[in-house]
Amino acid sequence: MTKEDKHETTRRNFVQKIIAGAGVSTVAAATYGLSSKATTPDASERRAKQYAMLIDTRKCIGCHTCSVACKAEFDVPLGVTRSWVEYTEKGTYPNVSRNFLPRLCNHCRHPQCVDVCPTGATYKREQDGIVVVDSGQCIGCKYCIQACPYDARFLNPVTGVADKCDFCIHRVSKGLVPSCVNSCIGGARIFGDISDPTSEISRLVETNPVTVLRPGKGTEPQVYYIGADHSDEHENKRGWYDVRVTTHRKEKGRR
Amino acid sequence: MVDRRNFLKLSVASAGSSLLPVHTALAENEEVLKQGGEGYSHLSGNKLEALPSICGQCPSRCAILGYLDDGRLVKIEGQPSSIRNQGTICAKGQTGASKIYDPDRILHPLMRTGERGAGEWKQISWDEALTELADRLKKLRDDGTPEKFVFHHGWISASAEKLIDDIFLATYGTASIIKQTCQQQSARWSAHELTWGANIDNWDIDNTKFILNFGSNVLEAHTNFVSLAKRLAVSAVDNRLKMVTFDVRLSNTAANSDLWLPVKPGTDLAVVLAMCNVVMTEDLYLGRGEEFMDFCLVNDNATATRSDKIATLKNHLTDYTPEWAEEISGVTAQQIRDVAREFATTKPACVISSRGAAAHYNGVETERAIQMLCAITGNIDIPGGRCRAVAPAWIYPTGPEDKPEARKLAFIDTDHDVALPEFGAGHKVLSRIKTGEERPGVYMWYHHNPAYANANTQDMINILKDETLLPYTVAVTPFYDETAALADLILPDATYLERYDIEDAVSPNQIPEYALRQPLVVPQGETRDFKDVCLELAERMGMPLGFKSADKFIEKVCKLTPVVKKQARGFRGLKKRGVWHDEKAAPVYNAYRREVPEETLAVDGVILDQKTGVYWNWMVAGAESETEALEAGYSDIPGASTGYVGQKIGDAIYEGFAPGKLNKSGHFELYSPILAAKGLPALPTYVAIPGHSEMKGDELILTTFKLNVHVLSNTGNGGWLNEIHHDNPVWINPVTASEREISEGDAITIKSRIGEVTATAMVTPTLAPGVVAVSAHLGRWEGGRYASGKRAPFAVDDIRHDEYQWWQAGGTSANWIIPDNPEPVSGQQSWMDTIVTVIKTNIQKEQ
């Protein structure tokens, strides 16, 4: 099994990459469109900030440090997860691979969870694009949990309301990166404002082939990946090769 | 099919070319978020108090920052100023607080009230506990048998080892101390003692270009885990560092390598020797490797010429061809040649290794052969190579001057099956008590869980339970683990987050980092740091050690160590920083090439040993007289290595590869006169695993592995860790499984010559055929609710987690069926050599 093989992807994945690539160039064009107009400081202030994350899975060693750092940051109860890592194994001995896919809320540009929330508890913050849940407004109806194409949401058993990753607002608002970014052993996670074309994340998204999860959903996820293996156990049905996706979450299924 | 494959490959290859290394330069007006070093409450938004300390979950000893919310430790992160772990720690480190607040923690001294092992206890006061213990210890001492106090410990801090082993126990008069710091690594360390001399190995990953990995799962578990894994993960992308991994299993390290080559268990040695053969026959040693030969001992002539040495090696390796190795290992001759050539021609490069290669019957030979491969390619102690570890030079007080001559029970390091038992036969001590005649009066263990961690579990339990073998046993531990459950007395220890310690872990960047552990919270309940308990025991026995408390001892160490006192602002300075290194210090390489100054050679007692070329001081080494020293010679006088001064090579005298515990020369000893004297092969030689070549068709080899969220049995109380790994199905290749009609999820029975265990099968192409593999963390039967599903005596409810624990603690421990099987040189347990049969459990029942 060589590294070239590791990046060899399925046709589905290849198509995903093309779509994602297209998606990214749209975003890049949009941001450049804004920045070209940004000739005065006032103009740049009007630009809508969008926090985003880029995960370079080539530097991910699957160590679960991010998952546990998140648990500790928020004292997340057993059984639910804001942040987790999936293992994707595929191939036939000895040509097999294992890739790691760190997961969290995608903070989509078009979040479906927001669309279905009956109380407005879930909303996308105008100032930074972070998708949040106002626990005071949430009635625990679980619509958003069903609506999320990424299984990123859960009902917090302690509070009884919907919960998920919030990009560590309490840290970011104090000038710190999110906990999973800070704790990542391989430095695989880059966090920043993707609407700022000069930010590190913008430059990396622009200069690397990146993908997002389930681009066909039209959600425009704001978590981007380099080198991610998007294979899925559904592919086993086609008989090409064996795929095994492992998650340590209580809910083993994957949408 | 082929066309589509190629098309994809092409498209990926073109994509690959634009997979650029990460830009690090920042734009001028970019909002910069800090990585860490501060923490805020997610509930209140309040800033949390941050205190630096040192992790103690595993031997890596990473620098940490603990965050406190109103006095409670809520979060642990990496310490950004550390040059070792550089601001990050692993999942285990993140869960440290679950040790402090473990609802199953032992909070008071416990005395057993029922049969040994029956789980019946009463809480007693420290005064009662220490009165009882001090009386017993005093009696042993007054009877003239202090050596009957046997103290057995696992990994402990550098300062605990000094204060407890070298001061407390030495002043008491016992040297019956077993340092089982080497459960998994002593074969490698013994090989290093034989080749390098005193050394813990290290690799300069920041500067290397190629890594050849034999059986190390460094991206999941290592004695220097985060510091190495971080550098590897980053270099693999930013520096295009290439890694080739030989392993029977696709570990995460193998998965992240550029090439995974499965190898039959126990045959890495054949592959390494064949690579050495390729290097020598294809003249790939020319250049650096050839130059390094000057510092190597290759035959029994210490003054052999370069060409003699090369001829000797070529001759020795002649028959170890890649074709020969292919037959044995299953790795093709072509693959061996290709990898050997790439390794030998990429400079600098290093070989890393661990238990996959060395936890076998031929472990020491394998590691010696690996050192030979590094040596003949000139990758020893250079930037980007395999380096002499650089650790801080702490200076410790030595305690009372009038220490008795400490004695030890003979079974501690006498083992007729093992050539060099002083390095790693600790796991055999309990069985040696059974077979020998001496009985410890008090057997005490600390940071150690032999009932779970050693092989042959049932035998361990039987011995620990047997009051005729072990009349009185004491466990020093914060947790009710499998071995504590078999003690007569349990002394509740402080966790690593509740005490002071000095640490001296290795820096992968070859610059020493000084580290101070300090309490982040006060010890819970009545738990006490065992260092303090030792000081009190000494007082009670009328032998005060001269330190009021453990922290005063640590303070004294900081005072005695000049750089810490002057540059790091001593104890107080380290309390603020946690770690300190000299910013002006340059990385240390090639230390062996330093010449010994003339004045050092002119010191009284320094003589030249003609045979080895070693300059040594017979007075320092404690020899009788100069005449005796010259006549008997350096190699044959016990303890002569303590007087080592330098090594004569050509006309110069170098610091060389200074010896540790063995009387080796200052050469890099590829040829070991020490092994030769014991009738063992002097140059690394192929040794087959006994029994493996005669295996029957239905037999398999059992291998165990560690993964990234547990440290053997040490982290079983981390709820967040068990949530990730609480079930360990046994890995089996689809071909091997189908031969036995085993499918995914089937109940299986694994049988060895000493017993059987039941498990669940996981059918996976990520393991070589002919093998079964199981993780070495589960199948616990004590250790609290998260580890075993069973509460400890006097446990309390966990209001945060009890309601939400969604898994059943379970899994399989393979140690029940792994027989006690010491490697013949070091005595390390050969974890990976067990021959087993595997059948579907219901089939067995039908029969």
Concise synopsis of the structure shown:
By secondary structure, chain A is an alpha+beta fold.
Task: Give the topology, please.
The complex is a heterodimer of chains A (255) and B (847).
Chain A: H1 3-7, H2 11-37, H3 41-46, E1 51-56, H4 65-74, E2 84-92, E3 95-103, H5 112-116, E4 122-124, E5 131-133, H6 143-147, E6 154-155, E7 162-163, H7 169-172, H8 179-183, E8 189-193, H9 200-207, E9 210-211, E10 223-226, E11 243-246
Parallel strand pairs in A: 1-10
Antiparallel strand pairs in A: 1-8, 2-3, 2-11, 4-5, 6-7, 9-10
Chain B: H1 2-17, E1 49-54, E2 63-69, E3 72-78, H2 91-94, H3 97-100, E4 110-112, E5 121-123, H4 126-142, E6 149-153, H5 158-172, E7 177-179, H6 186-195, E8 201-203, E9 210-214, H7 225-238, E10 242-246, H8 252-255, E11 259-261, H9 268-281, H10 288-292, E12 296-297, H11 306-317, H12 322-329, H13 333-345, E13 349-353, H14 355-358, H15 363-376, E14 386-388, H16 429-435, E15 442-446, H17 450-453, H18 457-465, E16 473-477, E17 489-492, E18 501-503, E19 514-517, H19 530-540, H20 550-560, H21 562-566, H22 570-577, E20 579-580, H23 598-601, E21 606-609, E22 614-617, H24 626-632, E23 644-649, E24 652-654, E25 668-669, H25 673-677, E26 699-705, H26 719-724, E27 730-732, H27 734-739, E28 747-752, E29 755-763, E30 771-775, H28 785-788, E31 835-840, H29 841-846
Parallel strand pairs in B: 6-7, 6-15, 9-10, 9-13, 10-11, 12-25, 15-16, 16-17, 26-30, 27-29
Antiparallel strand pairs in B: 1-2, 2-3, 4-5, 4-17, 8-14, 18-19, 19-20, 21-22, 22-23, 23-24, 26-31, 27-30, 28-29, 28-31
Keywords:
A: 255 residues, alpha+beta, Alpha-Beta Plaits, four-stranded mixed β-sheet, three-stranded antiparallel β-sheet, 11 strands, disordered N terminus, B: 847 residues, alpha/beta, Rossmann fold, Dimethylsulfoxide Reductase, domain 2, 4 domains, 29 helices, 29% helix, globular
